[in-house]
Amino acid sequence: MFSSNLKYLRNKFHMEQIELAERLGRKSGSSVSEWEKGSYTPKIKTLSDIAAIFNVDLDDLMNKDLSLLEEDILTKINEVSSQLHEPRQKRVYNYAKDQLREQNLPDNVEEFPVHYTTVRCYGSVSAGTGVFLQDEEYEEVQVAGDVPEHDFAVKVNGDSMEPMLQDGELIYVHKTSDARSGQIIIADLNGDAFVKKLYKNDQEVKLISLNQKYDDIVLRENDEFIVFGVVVLKGYKI
């Protein structure tokens, strides 16, 4: 069981045999290769180190098929999430993405911040085709580290403002109706809330996407357009 679990975990974490060997203080990947073949099993100290590297229980590493266990967990997650309404499914998806991002942090980055701050998030704004921005309802989220001064916070929905703003990112906003050309704004256009870069002159007003695969939105004379605020340009993630 150990040999198959070791190979499964190494492939899951996209780790070469030599990389695992080096993390265990060995000069070559030959030992790892022999372990995966089942030729022999390493000593208990090495087994404990392997379990710690992959964040699994030592008993599970030695006695349970980890691939089947994880498939069962994924099945349960899918069963539960499929019963949720779409807004809650999006929360599950964004949380899973944040967990993956945290999991892939380099070893020298602190995985668990010193403190968290509770922030009220008032729905989502679209970095794509427009979504409704809630007026009163909010969700309390835990944010790692310090939070900049702001009047309200919202989540980004979509990728049209990448690379500056990522899908699912929490952004902070200074509430104002007076925005200058070139600022990143939160605005309502015909009932939908957007986060875009504002461009305006005497002839036209445009909402610009930073992702070049999206077209700019040129405002027409009969459009209903309201600026809610200007984004505080400092990246924080949930």
Please give the order of strands in the largest beta sheet.
Answer: 2-1-3-4-9-5-6-7-8
Number of helices: 7
Uncertain runs with pLDDT below 50, 5 residues or more? 128-132
The H/E string reads: HHHHHHHEEEEEEEEE
Task: Give a structural overview.
About 2% of the residues have low confidence. β7 and β8 form a beta hairpin. 32% of the residues lie in helices and 24% in strands. A 9-stranded mixed β-sheet has the order 2-1-3-4-9-5-6-7-8, with no helix packed on it. It contains 7 helices and 9 strands.
SSE diagram, text form:
Layout: H1 2-12, H2 17-23, H3 30-37, H4 44-53, H5 58-63, H6 66-81, H7 86-103, E1 116-126, E2 139-144, E3 152-157, E4 170-175, E5 184-189, E6 192-200, E7 205-208, E8 217-218, E9 225-231
Parallel strand pairs: 1-3
Antiparallel strand pairs: 1-2, 3-4, 4-9, 5-6, 5-9, 6-7, 7-8
Helix pairs in contact: 2-3
Features of the shown structure:
alpha+beta, 238 residues, 9 strands, single chain, 9-stranded mixed beta sheet
What's a quick, concise take on this entry?
The chain is 32% helix and 24% strand.
